[in-house]
Amino acid sequence: MEHVPHVVHAEMSSLALIGNNTALFDRRYGGEIDSHDVVARINRAAILFTRFFEYVSHGSKTDMWFMWRHKEYENVRFDKPRFQMQMAYWEELDDTSVKLYPKEAYSKLQNDLGAVPSTGLMVLDFLDAIPELDHISVYGFDWKATPTFTDPTRATDQMLNGSGALHDFHKEKVYCHDRFISDSKFQFRF
User: Fold this and answer.
1) Which of 29, 83, 121, 151 is the most buried (most CB within 10 A)?
2) In the predicted model, is pLDDT for residue 20 greater than 60?
């Protein structure tokens, strides 16, 4: 897949991916997360300004940041990592350092699901294509069983997206089970 991150090197084999479910705040995974060679975060999991003790639950490292739309975060002040990717491939970027998720990968996932893939699913798909990664630990994913702290009042699975289709988190959970959870390369930490 094109756009393989330059932050992943041959000696880096483990990656922690941090999602946005609120249940993660009740865990103490911070040290475990930071022990990975690379830490990737989705949307506001890279910012974490909503809670005081976020480092205990979410860790403090951020090497990669994946977001639905870069424009949503342009005015947020925090130390942005070297690697950033916008998943909405069709939206133009003012910041040329931000990568775009490949259109072909988006279309394949959408066809496989029959629904708009979530940012989390697209990130899992992208990371799975990086051959240097031997181990991917996934935190903060529960397919909307609990709210997300990205926007807890927004029912993403019931919203219309740009294509007019809906997210289908039940299908995504089944898809993730068949493709990622059953793969020894991935470890989901609930």
Assistant:
1) 121
2) yes
